[in-house]
Amino acid sequence: MASSSSSSSYIFLILLFIILCVEPSQTKSIYLPRNNFQSSLLANKHEKTKMPLKVHYFPQILDHFTFLPKSSKVFYQKYLINDQYWNKDGGGPIFVYTGNEGNIDWFAVNTGFMFDIAPKFNALLVFIEHRFYGDSMPFGNNSYKSAKTLGYLNSQQALADYAVLIRSLKQNISSESSPVVVFGGSYGGMLAAWFRLKYPHIAIGAVASSAPILHFDKITPRSSFYDAVSQDFKEASLNCYEVIKGSWAELDALSTHEDGLIEVSKLFRTCKGLHSVYSARDWLWEAFVYTAMVNYPTEANFMMPLPAYPVEEMCKIIDGLPKGASRLSKAFAASSLYYNYTQTEKCFNLEGGTDAHGLHGWDWQACTEMVMPMTCSNESMFPPTSYSYKEFAQDCKKRYGVEPRPHWITTEYGGYRIEQVLKKFGSNMIFSNGMQDPWSRGGVLKNISASIVALVTQKGAHHVDFRSETKNDPDWLIMQRKQEVAIIQNWLDEYNKDLKQN
């Protein structure tokens, strides 16, 4: 059965955040995409990488920033290595993936770009798992127990983990002079960029794909994410956009009927009767948001099995239905492409989603430092909403007993006037974004200097450049990857030249 979750359940998918918004007439939570990957993991659990990966565990300390007795507690951090093409004696680099909020195996499977370029560079590949995700649990099954344990989950600790592990690895393999380049997509891309800024003595460069490092405070307009999703559908078909925009009112109207939930359950072909109309709303919402994010130019199985350019395919479904059909039924038919492209599902489970992989640490991160406010404007195809920090903070306090720090990311890593700041001291960074990815609006979209480069593609989706190359890749994607390879090669050439001179 195809599964999603209710409005009160955790939906673990690609880059998304728990944020409370307030509608003009009432207070309720709005569905927003998260940075987690339950559906993606389930969809890809049988996939394998192009090259074998060896599993290792590193004895990592709990707290890098204090010297209390408990700070030295050790947990075992998972990392994966492939040395098939590494030529240490020939100066081969070390390419490190800075793991996101999920199982590191999943990221290795879905970062084929690093495997594709490893032979050219004779590179050692390393994928490091983020603390509190996958198998890297500092307190085992009790890691998510309370704020006392979750307090050690933040981006600063994660970056320090990567720094300590990389230094130790280089010592153990007697490769102190090997240059390191970090790679990351989405939240991992943010970490890669921040790692280059915080630890320039460890990584000579960073490739940050679809990294919304400017999606904090008021740097990026709060409505930009959902405006971008809406624009993707509008460009595919104006009628499609208008049908989806009008479907929410029909759903609300249906929910007021005496047998409204029964009618909605029947229309949505649910496996069990619904308990809340918001389950149907979130089910539709999720499909449209994530389809926009993964609007790849080739068939893919990242979030779910989907055809090439799935936004266009959704709109073809809507535009092809009879004019007499309701907007809600058309929206359901389009969303079914996301959940049932393989045509294997007889019914849909809209409620009761579970955290099968223990990935809900992102909820804590979103309630502490990763505060990324979002709204829906009148131009959006989603119902208009505004943002209430007060409601958001109250929810976090209720759930975890903590107060969010909405300005901490920009204090710790910067963001305001980033062009002026990084131009003065930053170097060797690639920010790649596809404008069909709604997260691109919070990314770096213009070159900052000769060595801090923004590669922007009009049809690109969420870190599409990190996917494995295929024979059907469009020319613009092939060119984007060639540019990235050329830039990385230049970093390495400069490093090796400086190394010889010293």
Layout of helices and strands:
Blueprint: E1 2-3, E2 21-22, H1 38-44, E3 54-61, E4 74-82, E5 94-98, H2 104-109, H3 112-121, E6 124-128, H4 147-150, H5 155-172, E7 180-185, H6 187-198, E8 205-209, H7 224-236, H8 238-255, H9 260-267, H10 277-293, E9 300-301, E10 305-306, H11 310-320, H12 327-340, E11 348-349, H13 361-366, E12 386-387, H14 389-400, H15 408-413, H16 418-425, E13 429-434, E14 452-457, H17 475-501
Parallel strand pairs: 1-11, 5-6, 5-7, 7-8, 8-13, 13-14
Antiparallel strand pairs: 2-12, 3-4, 4-6, 9-10
Helix pairs in contact: 5-6, 7-8, 7-10, 8-11, 8-12, 10-12, 11-12
Write a structural description.
It is a single chain. The chain has 502 residues and is of the alpha/beta class. Helix 5 packs across helix 6, helix 8 crosses helix 11 and helix 11 (310-320) packs antiparallel against helix 12 (327-340). The chain starts with a strand and ends with a helix. It is globular. The chain has a domain at 54-218 and 409-501: Alpha/Beta hydrolase fold, catalytic domain (Rossmann fold), CATH 3.40.50.1820. It has 17 helices and 14 strands. It has an eight-stranded mixed β-sheet, sandwiched between helices. A two-stranded parallel sheet has the order 1-11. Strand 9 and strand 10 form a beta hairpin.
CATH topology of the domain at 54-218 and 409-501: Rossmann fold
CATH architecture of the domain at 54-218 and 409-501: 3-Layer(aba) Sandwich
- Alpha-carbon distance between the termini? 62 Å
Q: What is the global morphology?
A: globular
Which structural class do you get from the secondary structure elements?
alpha/beta
Strand order of the largest sheet: 3-4-6-5-7-8-13-14
The residue-averaged pLDDT reads: 89
Low-confidence stretches: 2-47
CATH superfamily of the domain at 54-218 and 409-501: Alpha/Beta hydrolase fold, catalytic domain
Query: What's the number of extended β-strand segments?
Result: 14
Name of the CATH first level of the domain at 54-218 and 409-501: Alpha Beta
H/I helix tally: 17
Beta-strand content:
5-15%
Estimate percent helicity.
25-40%
Radius of gyration: 23 Å
Largest sheet: 8 strands, mixed
Family: Belongs to the peptidase S28 family.
GO molecular function, one term: dipeptidyl-peptidase activity
GO biological process, one term: proteolysis
Organism: Capsicum annuum
